[in-house]
Design goal:
heterodimer, A: 114 residues, mainly beta, 7-stranded mixed β-sheet, 4-stranded antiparallel β-sheet, B: 109 residues, 6-stranded mixed β-sheet, 11 strands, 0% helix, 44% strand, globular
Amino acid sequence: GAVVSQHPSWVICKSGTSVKIECRSLDFQATTMFWYRQFPKQSLMLMATSNEGSKATYEQGVEKDKFLINHASLTLSTLTVTSAHPEDSSFYICSARTGRTQAFFGQGTRLTVV
Amino acid sequence: AQRVTQPEKLLSVFKGAPVELKCNYSYSGSPELFWYVQYSRQRLQLLLRHISRESIKGFTADLNKGETSFHLKKPFAQEEDSAMYYCALTLGNTGKLIFGQGTTLQVKP
């Protein structure tokens, strides 16, 4: 199957700093990428949908100025957590798909804000 | 509102026993439902989707629109089936997935 890679796999940052997480589709062109957040022992919650070359669509309750999403190419989307705080600590997962195919998931990024 | 409910956080069975992981959904449109699996230290991966009507690794799931359910079943559980299972619903053509809370399946030897 298709491969989606996230980088970094884990990151620790200081409160108030910004962190960028990359999501790459390695062997296919992803017209749409999705960003999810997962709290410990809880389900995945969709944060936003990004289509290549257009602005991301955020789910209700997700602050777009806090979680900046850029989908500049068909193989790369980035999520930047701006001015991170401890409550932003979580597991962030991206998925990518092309057309109406199934979505493929990245391995996730564990963010810890101290 | 769209919702996926998996009532069991943990399901523990012995090897060879039948397994049924429950999933109920709430969606006003025509649903497309999936089961995803996450093995230990691995990424989430698609197990099966209702439109395929296929059996993967011995698992099957039938969409019951009357009961709004999509339960995952396997007649004889194997130890390698131990994992976290998520039921998910996609919203129309958007590709957005709404996940259930997940059920940990533990298959004991």
